[in-house]
Amino acid sequence: MDKMGLWARLKSDTPLFFKRVQLLGASLVTLSAALMTEPDLPAAVTPYLSYMATIGGVMAAVSQFAVKQYSTEQP
């Protein structure tokens, strides 16, 4: 297996499943940021929203590194 550099891995194609995981992670970050700006939100909910933002950010970042595999075999 060829070793890919960080920049090459970021620029390569991402499989469809991981694109959906990226979208879900970005949605979690956006939702938690929108809810954190709500003034009437109880203080007990704030830590859970920050956890949700962290999990969404990690999901989006890690799924970016997935690389679509192409078969090089020829029949």
Task: Tell me what you see in this structure.
With about 80 residues, the protein is an all-alpha fold. It has a domain of about 40 residues. Helix content is about 60%, strand content about 0%. The protein is built from three helices and no strands. It is elongated, with a radius of gyration of 17 Å. It starts with 5 loop residues before the first helix and ends in an 11-residue tail after the last helix.
Low-pLDDT stretches are: none
> CA-to-CA gap between the ends?
20 Å
Instruction: Count the DSSP helices.
Output: 3
**Share of helix, binned:** 55-70%
- Computed structural class: mainly alpha
From N to C, what is the helix and strand string? HHH
Give the mean pLDDT.
Answer: 88
Which descriptor suits the 3D outline?
Answer: elongated
Report on the biggest sheet.
none
Which helices and strands occur, and which strands form pairs?
Elements: H1 6-11, H2 16-36, H3 46-64
Helix pairs in contact: 2-3
List keywords for this structure.
single chain; 75 residues; mainly alpha; 3 helices; elongated
Summarize the entry for a quick read.
The chain is mostly helical.
